[in-house]
Amino acid sequence: MNPKLKEKAQEALSAVLPITAIVLALSIFLVPMEIGTIAMFLVGAVMLIIGMGFFQLGAETSMIPLGEGIGTELSKSKRIIGAALITFVMGAIITIAEPDLQVLADQAAAIPSNILIWTVAIGVGACLVVGVLRIFYKGSLSTMLMIFYGAIIILSFFTPANFLSVAFDSGGATTGPISVPFILALGVGLTSIRSDKNASDDSFGLVAFASIGPILMVMLLGIFYNPQTASYHAAEVASVVTTQDVVRVFVHALPEYAKDVLRSMLPIAAMFIVFQLVSKRYQKKERVRVGVGLGYTYIGLVLFLTGVSVGFAPVGSLLGGYLAASPFKWLLIPIGMLIGYFIVKAEPAIQVLNKQVESVTNGGISSKSMNACLSIGVAISVGLAMLRSITGLSIYWIIIPGYLIALVLSRLVPKIFVGIAFDSGGVASGPMTSTFLLPLCIGVTSALGGNIMTDAFGVVALVAMTPLIAIQIMGLVYKIKSNNNVAVDSLPVPQADELVYWEEDE
Q1: How many Å is the Cα radius of gyration of the chain?
Q2: Which domain holds residue 278?
Q3: Would you say residue 505 lies in a domain?
């Protein structure tokens, strides 16, 4: 086995194993499950591990070099309009290619899937242009975020209640395993030729803009359509008895996901070919490396999405429904928090972000500290999602104060933490959230007779929101611990000896 692939698979194993153990423990002590269901879950877990290994290796060798290369070439361009147009097209292409978005679009039937996807794609493209222009003109990320989120808060009061949660969810679902590595690397590439003190700070923030665009556009679309009814298409739980039945279900599903991922990856491959023909940036060895990396990415996504959709999603809905109907429904909050703490580590794009942060800060902000902070944030968000599903609490009372807190913190913490925090929100809400946590909330809401569109949808939005606060609190603590004689916000490119090494307690 490729040593690098083996390393990535081991990382995936450590990420997936805890959530697998939690589900198995629940099946033994609280939620009795059929052997067939457990077998499908375990097969799904194995596919997740292998898929994450391939994906992480593929993203490292293809998506990241491609994003950095395009970003570097754009930064050299003196034609701002041309750079803006290219950015818009790339943003729309990678959004349409994002499988998370298709999952969300298929679940929200208020608006046809194609219309929703194209609306989100336009939103991502437009806001990525804004993000790129901010880097070119060295604008304040905090100020621009306050303007855009202010617009979101205002529009939220005019968006139909049945569609509000879907609008917020779209922001998190858009930034998934395909788009995140590319956008993160694009930001690094755009700032790579800069030598000013804020270069590394400005390399983060593009994922944040990619998350804002869909929320704004889907809100406007919701207002335009003014949907009176909205529904969720629940996936049928496959009936399996023997191990042959389990294998048959996965074999039947695999070609469908292979086709979907191929359709998603082809525009990325085409973009690489066009970029190479125009720029001639990569030598033969590098071209081969990127091509092989795209192949790894494809294999990884096919395995991952098949495993999580077929093996994990039914179990999520089953767990939620059974616990909600039992006398132990309030246990859903601590159980949800426990699941949230570990499940974020299984998001394929999380490790990409963490390694990017560690690289840009020269190890000053470690992957370990990022994992710990994101886990705490997502744990809180899933707990709040369970509370909403049980009580019917409006998302207004959580999401609006949450964003206001995040925006206030953005004025208080070092600049680099603002970009990292708002990027991490989009990264944390990936396919595991869409295909496991969302069915979990739906199972709870259905069992309690609640409104799925208002009470269950929104978990993706909450998972995308809490990291904004958690990472910035880490930045605030760093600022307090820093030498008072040093102007933190005016620090040059952060170096390893300039940052507190945030490590999880042993």
Answers
A1: 21
A2: 3-226+234-498
A3: no
